[in-house]
Design a protein that fits this description.
With about 60 residues, the chain is an alpha+beta fold. Helices cover about 30% and strands about 15% of the residues.
């Protein structure tokens, strides 16, 4: 799990840990499309689809667009 601290602070009661090991791809963005959160499903998807640039090579703060 990768989680932007400022994003986490805006959702203090949200349980990100419950999404951590989901098989579903879960991610969060700021309104302008900058990546703020990814779970293990994101990494698994990238690996299974031979897209290493999405797996850890896509840093938090980078636009998904």
């Amino acid at each position: 799990m990768r989680l932007d601290r400022a994003f986490r602070n805006r959702l203090p009661d949200f349980d990100f840990e419950s999404l951590h090991d989901s098989h579903d791809v879960v991610y969060g963005t700021w309104a302008d499309g900058r990546l703020t959160y990814t779970n293990n499903g994101w990494d698994r998807f990238a690996t299974e689809n031979e897209a290493p640039r999405l797996n850890r090579g896509w840093p938090l703060g980078r636009s998904i667009w």
